[in-house]
Amino acid sequence: MKLLLKPLHVVYMIYAAIVFLVIMFLIIPPIFLASFLGRIKGGNIIFYFLRFWSYTWFPAVGIMVKRIYKHDKKDKTPYLYVVNHRSYLDAALAVQVMRLPFRPLGKIEMKRIPAFGYIYRQSVVMVDRSDAKARARSVREMISVIKEGVSILIFPEGTTNETDSLLQPFHNGAFRIAIETQTPIQPVLYLDNGKRLHAKGFNLNPGRCRVVYLPPVPVAGLTMEDLPALKQQVFNIMEQELKATV
């Protein structure tokens, strides 16, 4: 049976890639024009085109997104979103399910991908983890973005989790920025992305993608001395929810 399904899956993968690329090339011209409107206004407009991309591509390839709210979804407060990271689908899903406006923190290496790299440069705060000065610039940019009322999304594990653990240890960056800007943290979980497209290989599968929005964690009044405890608190919240739902 698996031998019979394998050719069908190859056809499905080719179809998914073609649809992905067609939508990408359709939105590049308006993204190019929006990029002239500035880092904040232009960037916010760009995300509406990225959202169209995501809303179109996911159902086209048979991936159904389900949102699960465990807090007041009407709340319009800018947040620092911290999200678990198990799949290359995570960024594509984020532009659909995270409340606009927001900016993700992304690896600088992705900007080198032909065509996609241009969109990437216009829509994320890039970080070069191998360069301390570059990391500092990224932090300053994220802080300035938050002060403009734009939320930030960070994968606190730092890279895709390819292990059997529910979560990898968190880096300090997200929690340092939250404390410095006094921005509340909202943990978010992507429960099924690793099943749809695992980080270890490009093997896309149709099915559901559940997104769980956990209650925000306030940081008002916290100082850098509280950073380790805050990081552990958020880690525990996310790990406990993963244990209960995965």
From TrEMBL:
Record field: transmembrane: 12-33, 45-65
GO MF annotation: an example: 1-acylglycerol-3-phosphate O-acyltransferase activity
Pathway the protein contributes to: Lipid metabolism
InterPro entries attached to this UniProt entry: Plipid/glycerol_acylTrfase (IPR002123)
Keyword terms, alphabetized: Acyltransferase, Membrane, Transferase, Transmembrane, Transmembrane helix
GO biological process: phosphatidic acid biosynthetic process
EC code: 2.3.1.51
SMART domains assigned: PlsC
Residue ranges constituting the Phospholipid/glycerol acyltransferase domain according to the UniProt record: 79-193
Keyword NADP: no
Pfam families associated with the record: Acyltransferase
Xref: PANTHER family: 1-ACYL-SN-GLYCEROL-3-PHOSPHATE ACYLTRANSFERASE
Stated name of the protein: 1-acylglycerol-3-phosphate O-acyltransferase
Species of provenance: Chitinophaga pinensis (strain ATCC 43595 / DSM 2588 / LMG 13176 / NBRC 15968 / NCIMB 11800 / UQM 2034)
